[in-house]
Amino acid sequence: MSHQVRFLWASHSVHHTSETFSLASAFRVPVTSHLTGNFLFWAWMPLIGFEPAMILTMKSFSLTYQFFVHTEAIKKLPWVIEAIFITPSHHRVHHGSDVAYLDKNHGGVLII
Question: Is the pTM of this model over 0.70?
Answer without folding.
Answer: no
